[in-house]
Automatic annotation (TrEMBL), chains A, B:
This is AcrR family transcriptional regulator. InterPro entries: DNA-bd_HTH_TetR-type_CS (IPR023772), Homeodomain-like_sf (IPR009057), HTH-type_TetR-like_transc_reg (IPR050109), HTH_TetR (IPR001647), Tet_transcr_reg_TetR-rel_C_sf (IPR036271), TetR_C_16 (IPR041678). One of its GO terms (molecular function) is DNA-binding transcription factor activity. Residues 14-74 form the HTH tetR-type domain. It comes from the Bacteria. Residues 37-56 bind DNA. Keywords: DNA-binding.
Length: 196, 196
DNA sequence: CTGAGATGTAAGCCTCCGCTTACATCACCG
DNA sequence: CGGTGATGTAAGCGGAGGCTTACATCTCAG
């Protein structure tokens, strides 16, 4: 940061690609797909616009790369019982604005026109369904998982795009506790097996 | 429908405005703000594009009118106990694609840049907070209402933009029952303050 | 009937944005 | 060194989309 004087950084394709990727991730989650321009991305990355196309081909392809990079980590390798809690914790973590996760919220927002993003969304949904579905033996387990998913998505929307108070500033732990308790009603095992 | 032959309908400014409004409402909820063009709107309304500007001034102003028209009806005049159930019922109703409600989902999707839409979202949030907050006496009532709001928003997103199955085709009654049961955990009245 | 305002239309202006091209500059290998 | 491929840059093309303008046509009051 403080050493930002040098006119020419040393040439380094992979660093440039990384900068573009990071800038794209941030901007897509801040503004959604349509409202971020390739010029914005290049500017934030401190890079010429043409390089974006050299390295990623297309705005849409770049979006896909961001999306894929991100979603790989999402389900993670947590045991099923903890996937929910960890997903929530991640989503509620304060450094959201640093744009770690949540690009997939951008995908959601601009959804409908992009088949590849659709595929990723679908995959993500299936991953969650598989993992969370194992937590309940209700016959409508898949539906219940969708409801859980809906809640997580809604929380993300309200936090990152609406920035609704008191949600944004609330203690993540408290929020997680409330949500998990309510969710346990949905994902309980046959009789009352709430686990917090 | 069958009498669609006549080349020139009788001139009628208010009918034209209404047609534009309806077309705008449908398209905004189908595609979100950014991805619908004024030409699309005018075409669907069967009207010359310039009229949109004559009657509404600006694409954004038209959006605001749609939003305002819509949100007026949202909270409605139901007793507090039923606001939730009715909101859910509306959101889950099959004729969603007919684009009755849900323009505010478009507002959510394209959010961040538009102060007037922000205001409407905020207002909507406050309305719900007031009404639903009266259902619980927990000290963090506002937060709990936000969580409920988040769930409703998420359900709308998953249904209308992601079109997630089995959520979309599920029996609305069953969905509502599940959701309301879980929500009641959030909005319960005091006694028994179990927290895990 | 007629003139004037209301309503509708065709055409196009202008800016933004995705993307390309032609070229300059660097870094590394012989 | 020198020269060749990799990296970076400036400029601009082409089309889309918001908005305007100039004009045609209707309709209704007087």
């Amino acid at each position: 940061m403080t050493s930002e004087a040098p006119e020419h950084r040393r040439r380094d394709a992979s660093a440039t690609k990384a900068a573009l990727l990071r800038a794209a991730q941030e901007l897509f989650t801040e503004r959604g797909y349509e409202r971020t321009t390739v010029r914005d991305i290049a500017d934030r990355a401190g890079v010429n616009q043409a390089l974006l196309f050299r390295y990623f081909g297309t705005k849409e392809e770049l979006f896909h790369v961001v999306l894929a990079t991100e979603s790989r980590v999402l389900i993670a390798e947590s045991p099923a019982e903890q996937v929910l809690a960890r997903t929530l914790a991640k989503m509620l973590s304060r450094d959201m604005d640093a744009a770690q996760d949540g690009v997939w919220l951008a995908a959601l927002r601009s959804s409908g026109h992009d088949s590849a993003a659709d595929a990723i969304r679908k995959q993500l949904g299936e991953d969650y369904t598989r993992v969370l579905g194992s937590l309940t033996d209700a016959e409508d387990a898949d539906l219940r998982v969708d409801l859980v998913l809906a809640w997580i998505v809604g929380l993300g929307m309200l936090r990152t795009v609406v920035r609704k108070e008191p949600l944004v500033s609330a203690d993540p732990g408290a929020v997680a506790r409330l949500v998990l308790r309510a969710m346990s009603v949905l994902l309980e095992r046959a009789e009352t097996e709430p686990d917090c």
